[in-house]
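User: Could you check the structure of this?
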Amino acid sequence: MLKRTISALLAAICLWSIAAAQEPVYAGNRDFILDYKLSGENISSGITLSTGESENFFMLNIQPPVHYEPEEIVPREYVFVLDVSGSMDGYPLDTAKELIRNLVSDLRKEDSFNLILFCNDNELLSPKSVSASPKNIDRALKLIDRQHGYGGTELNNAVQAALDLPKQENTARSIVIITDGYISGETETFDIICQNLDEATFFPFGIGTSVNRHLIEGIANAGQGESFIVTDKADADETAKYFRTYMEAPLLTDIQITYEGFDAYHVEPVTPSTLYAMKPITLFGKWKGEPSGIIHITGKCGTEDYVADIPISEKNIDNSNCALPYLWARKRVERLSDFGTFKDNAAIKEVVTRIGLTYSMATSYTSFVAVLETIRNPEGESTDVDQPNPLPLHVSNLAIGCGYTVGSEPGMLLFTVLAGCFAIISFKRKRKITQRTSL
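Assistant: Sure, the predicted C-alpha cells are below.
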C-alpha cells in the first residue's frame, strides 16, 4: 500500500508538471485536480514496524470489512452545517440543497439529523436532533428551499452550535460542514474541532468554482474525516453520491487502542476516529524495546462489543518502509502546527522546528534555503514591480471582504453601512427642504 501511494504521489507531481507546461492559459489562477485510483482492490491491514539507528516507527491499519450487514451499522446522527452566505448563491447552494436532500431522505428510522444554516447568524432546525420521519424530512427540505445566499460567513459559531446539541448515546455523530470556505479564522475552526474529537467525526464538503482547500482539507485532517470538493457543476451528482456512500456505514465506534508488552509512544492521531466502511484507520507512532506484545482494539459494532488483538513479533519488521518516519513526522506537525491548537505556543514551536530540521520538512518554522554562488546582479540595482495577485477563476472580490475581517464577506455589514449613508443623505435633504419651506 505504501509503495503504491508513493508511486501515485510521484505520478501526480509529474503530471502536474506536464499540465503546467502545456496549459499556460491556466496562469495559476485555479486548482490543479488529479483524479486517479490505485490498482489494488484491498488495503492491507495489521501493523508494520521499521527500525532505525536512533528511533523505531510503526504504522497500524484498522481495515473495515469488504462486506457488511445493515445491522452492523450503528445508529447515525447527521448534523448538517450549511453555509448560506452570499458567495454560496447559485450553483453552490443548489448543489448543497440537493446533497442534504438525498442524505436525509435515505436515513433509517433509528437515525436522526439536524440542520444549522449559517451566514451572519445561525438558524437551527430543532433544539435537538430529530428522527428521519417524513414530517421532519419535509420540514428540513422546506427550510433549505427558502435559502438563496446572503450575508457574511461566521462558521465557528455554527460549528460550536452543532457541538452544543444534546448527543444521543450509542450513536455515531457526523458533523457535515458544507461551504465554499471563504471565511477568516481557519485556525479557530481547527481549534474547536481538535478540542472535540471525542464528540463527532467532521466531514467538510467544499462547493464552488475554487474553494478554500486549506479550510476544507484542514477540517478533514483535524476532524479525522474525509474531504469532498466539487468545483464543477457537472461533477456534483457523482461526488455527492460518493459522499453519501462513504458516510452511510459507520461500522465501529467508541474505539479504544491499548498496548500490552509493546512500548509505543508519540502515536498520531491521539484519538482514533470512527471506522467507516470506506475509510480504514491508520495510526503512526514510535516504539522502543523488543518487537513483542499485543495491541488490543475494542469498540462498538452495532449493538455488539468488538474486540481484536494484534500480536507483535519480528515478522512485522519491514525496513523497506523508509517513508514511515516522514509519514509520522507529517502527521505530528499537522496536529501541532498546521491544523492544531498550539500555533502560538513557544514550546510547540520548538518541537515543530526540531521535527522540521530532523526530517528535512518545510513547516511553519522551517524552510528550504537555496544558496547560489553566481552573482546575477553585480551592480546591485533593482526595480520594484507591482505584481498582480488575482483571485481564483470565477471568484468574486467579495471573497476577501474588501477589508472586512470579522467574517469573509461584507454581507449585511456593507448593506447596513450603505443603508445608513442613504438615511443620512435623505435626512439632510429633508431638513433643507423643511428649512426652505419655513422661510
